[in-house]
């Protein structure tokens, strides 16, 4: 396999590689524990958690407790419990036991759709429903893959159930509540059909291609679904003199929504999405849960008055780099620190040379204020007395705790944070009687940490899903340190790309291979996947890849210069086209040799 | 220094809060009041209560607790109204079909757009946020009030303003659909048939629903939002604003509308309106034009900056619009150009950006002139607004000061991206000639060639 | 394609028909402008007669000997020197969306030898449209690429480019920019910087070569030898490299301007900076470096979202106040007629009427090196001037006469002709 070495001299890059390393190591150890058939069979499904601190529910923490788990359920919890004869005793001395976290909304276990050749649409006004992004009949439960990487990652982060939605555009389909254990997908289903999902996302080039058309389509579909359902019911009662109902599965799938027998989780991150979503709900009259809310603080009144359930995004904008650097410095090696200090000095010199103008002061002040607002959102909701859960569409599982801690630094209470991870989603998803707290008879879904979960340095040590134990050793970190010296990364493989231009975007694939020591890059647009163009001037420096694509457009030669920053599974960057402009481009690894670490 | 700035930023924050809480009571003292409809009144006061003009008189005693604006030496005119713009919306063109009547840019209002503040700083208090011109029947539009400072899109909406819809004739729909998608219309003949087909189909659709409502049929017809919208036009519930340039196509649309009994129509751009001014006047159509834009494409090559004057003199209710985030900042200047090109009087020139666009948007009972009972929307200038030396001093919407030159903050953005880097400069793209050079680029990215390129072009604000 | 050709044919026919109409021609000869108020620009405002003879301002004063001159009564009127727009596509662009009618953007990145004068269309419909507002002279300039070509100063009257040529050319450079190209340009700041650095390096390479080429050329001339290669690009740069001509550097972003100041200093180039949207941010540095500036359009949107709404309106004034020599431009084609209004806005937003007038008369004349002939009402200068009934910045003001090189040019254009024809249409409705 053709690989390139990445010199580990860049600070932010080293951070990147470190976080990257954590995941697969954990994943590997699990895979061995769970799937290796050479290991002896499980002795029993009885576990005894000894002398631990049990957080029974948000705000109720009891120490010196034990927990008995039998056949997937919590048999007992309390002090001075007797160890059952057949129990496997788990050494949880001084550890913290929480009800397994419930991910209230995410795409966990739902693979990204494969890059298919886009069907040629004859009439852009009437594309097939799936091309238009209207697939309310799709069931996430049918798409769920228990062995998807994201499942293991969420579990390692302490989650035992995920409410997963299909991926898609305006109407991706029905969500499902899944247990994050291992095994066949069907067996992981907690609730096969939870709700519809929606968002203001549109496709390219065909109707609906803009937010205004998406909203119009919502209106029309909703109205037609109501009519279709009524028609079907009428026909069932007495078909005489009535046309046979002929409705698409997409339209019929929305009927329960119109009757309020089903709700819709609506992905609405920013302030305008939120207002638009609520306006749509108010207009059409259906039950809506706001999901992945990032900028909800200006709508708290509206949300509160209408009792709208809300899930706040755990993805947060990054802190300023400088602040970050200071934190990192403690961990970094002395020579790194020196180097950084030098850099900082340079920066400072540059700054003092070009002292901040009042304008920049004002800009920075406002920006800092904005950042604070994002990070304080959860605390503001709590202060306002609005209960909320969390959703996890955009956040990397490895960042979840870090980000929740940042929210807590800005005023979110531990109780509210824990409730957003446990009791709120349990109630919202209708599983409060079996999950969300640690009680006799509830599912043995637990997460066990060495210190309080909310402690900065806490580590997840065990996760129980339906009474099955997943163990995480804290050597993972050490291992990653060891391998750090040996970072070898490959960019070979097949990548998808998407070029963003205003109002439109274009996608395709990029194949990277190494031949005779040189990289070869072939690029093809999605509409003509067979026509690959070979790139020239390919250069790879660290994680930066650049190349040129020369194209002849109606006898007009054009040079496209790509500058990409490659990550393990995705990349981002820009493509500039001479003087004409430059456009952001991003992509993902679809099919390629695994990263070697 | 830092503290001062922070205090300033804080002050700004508070000030915005205060704005949305203000009751909209004001007393403007001692101004030269350009009422537009009822002449000019010197040394006059305007009393505003709850956002409405309650009294116009000399020496109105200052009511207790009401903010008094000393306008001595200043000119107060009605808030400027722009009958054609694309600011404050997140989507302009749904360019996927020649008829997309059901979409509504009012669903995609963007209260965070700084263009709103910039328009206010030019005295513009109301604009008509329009769908683009890619489709013969484009989307519905939204009349907005420039209540900058809010984050709620609904707050921009001018409550009670009639519904409007964008139509488009000529090159744009021909290029997007005919040349681009190989779907009719490819000519002005094809454009006509889009309208006839839409109106006729909507008539059948209405009949099907009537039959159902009368109990003649048992099952409701399939609900079609596009047809519903066209039906509302037929019922006279929606005012058409039609992008148009050439005389022949203007006449064509009037003929079509006559056949379907529709009479609410404002022609937009209408660069060759001057050629058919008598016909426009007779039909009762209105015209919203550029002051001096021409020659950017073939269908505006035979234009004249005297268009507004010829139309006005022939009895057509005419306005001057911006169709641009730049021009919307100085419509008073654009209106004044009609004094060089066609000798309009002061009141005639001012009417082009106040009462006339108000008529075209169906909001003339509420705004467009300074009269008791009307909304307290004003633009206050230090010189006569038709003078090149006029500088807007204060802009008032519903009795609330939304722009004040004496309190113009360093940075007026409402929504700040916490990831944005300081000092992002955007090159002025007018110098980059979209039409010429972007074509190759877009074709390349899209590979659907022209269609996508055109959809791109028309998804931008460059739709004129 | 067929369609394009068809459009072209229509276009051609259109041009022909419009010129077969009865057209008033320019009137030559000598003219005595009597009793007007002269806004001389360089010598204040005075009450005097002005004599036009042989295309020049032959005399200014009272009791002028005007034998044989046509007398124009200017009582109560004002006389101004013709306005100069320091950056346009006039004559090079006809119909915006039809690329085959546009001649300002040649292919290539390094093409300083592309000469605007070659492609100026004396019969562009936009030229008479421009004249009616008192604009008599413009810089017609190519666009696009690092070195887009060489602009030409032209008078807006004449039947051949040579007749129109006003004696100055401008070698143009687009300085590598760190400005983003619109909102969708989401290159990282790093990438933007890298691109600019790459471009800057390329620019340095070009300039190194140009300097070397100038040396080789000098030697060749001294030794009466022929250069053994054909290098029109380098030839075009020779006058700039040798300090005989100015380089017109298009630059807008603050940091780019700062870098450009350093670059022209290091390279010892006589430079005029154009565009200069953010000149106000570095006004003092510009003044200290003695850089001349051409900026505009004044009626522009600010370059940054957080800029004040009037950033573009006040830009020229701020640079001027810092001591920078500032000329204005519209950067337009069909609407160069808005030059006086752009100057009017600059005047209103801090520059003052007098200085704004200079910015479209004597200052550009000085920048282009033709102040001995253009830019003011002075004896001996080219008779480019107009007569107005008031302040030419005011929209209400009417211009009654306009002279270019002494020709009394009719104030008629497609726009006025259509007005005359359609104000009262006959037949009307019948």
Largest sheet of chain A: 9 strands, antiparallel
- Stated plainly, the CATH topology of the largest domain in chain C is called TIM Barrel
Number of helices of chain A: 16
Which parts of chain C are unreliable, with pLDDT below 50 for 5 consecutive residues or more? Answer: 12-20
Compute the CA-based radius of gyration of chain C.
23 Å
- The structural domain count of chain C equals 2
Structural class of chain A: alpha+beta
Secondary structure: number of strands of chain A: 29
In helices, the fraction of residues of chain C equals 25-40%
Overall pLDDT metric of chain A: 84
Biggest contact: B-C, 66 and 74 residues
Given helix and strand content, the structural type of chain C is alpha/beta
- What is the CATH-assigned architecture of the largest domain in chain C? Alpha-Beta Barrel
In the CATH hierarchy, the architecture of the domain at 22-100 and 436-485 in chain A is Roll
The CATH class of the domain at 22-100 and 436-485 in chain A is identified as Mainly Beta
Q: Largest sheet of chain A, order of strands side by side?
A: 24-23-22-21-29-28-27-26-25
Description:
The complex is a heterotrimer of chains A (597), B (464) and C (430). Chain A is built from 16 helices and 29 strands. Chain A has 597 residues and is α+β, with helices and mostly antiparallel strands. Among the domains of chain A are: 22-100 and 436-485, Urease, subunit C, domain 1 (Roll); 490-591, Quinohemoprotein amine dehydrogenase alpha subunit, domain 2 (Lipocalin), CATH 2.40.128. Chain A has a nine-stranded antiparallel sheet, with no helix packed on it. In chain A, strands 2, 3, 4, 5, 6, 17, 18 and 19 form an eight-stranded mixed sheet that branches. Chain B folds into three domains: 1-79 and 368-416, Roll (Urease, subunit C, domain 1), CATH 2.30.40.10; 80-367, TIM Barrel, CATH 3.20.20; 433-459, no CATH class. In chain B, 31% of the residues lie in helices and 20% in strands. Chain B has 13 helices and 16 strands. Chain B is globular, with a radius of gyration of 23 Å. In chain C, strands 1, 2, 3, 4, 5, 14, 15 and 16 form an eight-stranded mixed sheet that branches. An eight-stranded mixed sheet of chain C has the order 6-7-8-9-10-11-12-13. In chain C, 33% of the residues lie in helices and 21% in strands. In chain C, a hairpin with an 8-residue loop joins strand 7 and strand 8. Chain C is globular, with a radius of gyration of 23 Å. Chains in contact: A-B, A-C, B-C. Chains B and C meet through helix 2, helix 7, helix 8, helix 9 and helix 12 of B and helix 1, helix 10 and helix 13 of C.
